[in-house]
Amino acid sequence: MLTLRGTCRCGKRLSEGISSRSIMLNHFDANNQAIVHFKCPACYVDIPVHITTDDQKWNYEASCHEGGSFELIKDIDLEDLFTEGDVSGYINDVVAKQPERVFLAALEDLDVVRDLAKTSRFGSETFNRMVFSQHFAIFETYLSDRLIRIVEEDRRALKAIISTFRELKDASIPFLDVFDAVEVVRNRVITGLSKLLYHNFGKVNPLYKEVFGCNIFADEKDREFMMQQVEIRHDCVHRNGKSAAGVAHVISDNHIDSLRHAILRAHHNIEVAYEEKYYVTEAY
User: Fold this and answer.
1) Is-contact 168 188, C-beta < 8 A?
2) Domain boundaries, the chain
3) Which of 9, 116, 123, 204 is deepest in the core (most CB within 10 A)?
4) Is the pLDDT of residue 17 over 60?
5) pLDDT tens digits for 44-58?
């Protein structure tokens, strides 16, 4: 979640701020700029704050040309964070016990499919879109399972992720639940994590930095590449491989291989961080 806070030129601190929902409702122009308006409760002046972002909506900056100072505070916003579901059933039935092995096994299965298809439809546009999209499905499942599994198993990970959420840091629980506080909080967090879209790397990466101490991707080059692939994935899933302008994406075998190598490097990067931070010591 993005929260915009600042101080009016009259000196009034605008502590309530404006949340990401209000910011995102603005239409960013061709230069990725938008204007958000504050109304100072002290001097009643209207304050236009200019918001600038990048093409992937990854980074945001705020500036004010009318006096005063403003900043954007980036936090994580999980929809329905405090709505508890059947966490135990979800953990047992959905989340892999060994996410790293399931990820590699799924990629091997996909390689087998590609090999078997060489004599039939291999290389066709439909087939390549399917394989491309399935790589994303495998990677998203790994990101979800790896994060949820460690939060479920290790209190250090749970504590790290709580520190990321302003909603949880200041939350309270009923007095009767005090003795089960850890489980109550864990259930709420896992319920929220289960609802994340894990191809939304802008939301997921800060969680990984808090819990594992690493970025999702091995380097900036891979991050930029994968952000581009997210857009193509969207077009494959929702527009049968065409962009909003009606231009068809050409997904070659080499393109698929590049995606596969990028998510393998991400997998290795995360697993190294996981082992260094959690695997060498007892969870409790």
Assistant:
1) yes
2) 2-74, 87-279
3) 204
4) no
5) 787 787 778 766 555
